[in-house]
Amino acid sequence: MSENTDIEDTAPGPKAGFGTIRLMFLTPLLDALSDMGKRIDPLLREHGMFRSQLETPYEVVPLHRYVSLLEVAAEKFDRPYLGLQMGASFGLADLGPFYALLRAAGNLRGALDCLALFQSRLQSRTLFESRRDTDTTAYVYRIEDERVWPRTQDSEFALSGYVHIARELIGPKWAPRMVHFEHPIEGRKERLEEYFRAPVLGNQLINGLIIDNDDLDAGFATAVPSQDRKLRNILEWHLLDLMGPEAAPSESFVSLTRDIISRWLGRTHIDCAAVAAELKLSERSLRRRLTEEGTSFRELLQDARKERAQTILSKPGVSLAIAAEQLGYSDAAAFSRAFKEWTGYSPGRFPGKT
Questions:
Q1: Are residues 200 and 289 part of one domain?
Q2: b/e for 305-328, b at 16 or more Cβ within 10 A?
Q3: Looking at 214, 243, 272, which one is the last position of a domain?
Q4: Domain total of the chain
Q5: Distance between the two ends of the chain, CA-based, in angstroms?
Q6: Quick one: 330 and 300 in the same domain?
Q7: How confident is the model at residue 233 (pLDDT cuts 50, 70, 90)?
Q8: How many C-beta neighbours within 10 Å does residue 336 have?
Q9: How many CB atoms lie within 10 A of CB 171?
Q10: pTM
Q11: Residue 23 has pLDDT above 50, yes or no
Q12: Which of 29, 50, 220, 228 is the most buried (most CB within 10 A)?
């Protein structure tokens, strides 16, 4: 039973540097475990949460505590598919005022892009974005803090929840083209494919739904485009105001730089100049501020690569070429040399390699 004990946090509220999640996502857990009655209350208290907080659904709690709560509850109450059960019943009505916003989006792509727009306010330090290809688009989901692990239930809750919302919007028989999970799915594959009605792969680099572009761009049957566009703009403005600003970042430039590197790693080229521009600083200013905090851009990038490399190599079947690409190296040979410098092992002989 894991409670992410490697993350030191004894205060009941969120701490700087850790992700947060809105308490509205506690409701689907309590609904899924409604047959447990009050037996879940001690577990909530252990994770710093209480039923009374449901009266303030936009209040935030530490993300790692929420993720740990799902994992522990799944084990304690013998619910191996707890996250899937939560997502399968989490629909538009559970999103409160977001219900109207998603309906007004006009099509599934617009609805999912709306959720991506609010991601950092609903759940911080979590990636949810789209990657479009010729025939399909991948909507990917990943908690950016590698320390928050295991997170099987959260990942399955997220992806099954997106699919349930999609089925409410465009039809109950809808299915994605393919589903990816970052965790192993041995012994789970049949149940997952039964729900998603699509091939499901585990031990992937990221969680994601692969969706046909035709499905994403087909208009909702009840859509009135001109009215929907105006309504959507109004609803977005009011919801952004209701939820308040994004979580204030730490004043530490080390933390800010780490966050950007974590988000960009494996998705785009990363260098100090680009990160400085994102922070609205000159490259020289960023380097100076990092030096003042006892580190350098190169050290932070290398640390992020090392941490991500060990996570990637712990998953079976990942080739060195894919690992190199995800870590921003030009080829597998360059990655292998760097990895051996860090650990003293070649990637193939790394003790954590499965």
A1: no
A2: bbebbbebbebeebebeebbbbbb
A3: 243
A4: 2
A5: 21
A6: yes
A7: low
A8: 17
A9: 10
A10: 0.74
A11: yes
A12: 29
